[in-house]
Amino acid sequence: MNKITHHLSDQLLIGYSAGTLPEAFNLVVATHLSMCDECRAAAQSFDSIGGALMQAQPTEDLGDAAFAKTMALIAKGPKVVAPAPAGIDVPDPLSAYIGGGLSDVKWRPIGLGVRQAVLKTSHAATARLLYIPSGAAVPDHGHRGTELTLVLQGAFRDKTARFAAGDVEVADEDLHHKPVAEIGHDCICLAATDAPLRFSAWVPRVAQSLFRL
Amino acid sequence: MQMKFNLVQQAGASNHQVAYAAFNSNAIYDQKANFRAVTQTTPKNTWVDHLKRIQTDQDQQAFAELFRYFAPRVKAFLMKSGAAPGMAEDCTQEVMATLWHKAHLFDPSRASVSTWIFTIARNKNIDALRKQRRPEPEELTWGPEAEPEASDVLEMQQQSDQLSQAMKALPGQQRELIEKAYFGDLSHGQIATETGLPLGTIKSRLRLGLSKLRQTME
Question: Complex ipTM, two decimals?
Answer without folding.
Answer: 0.90
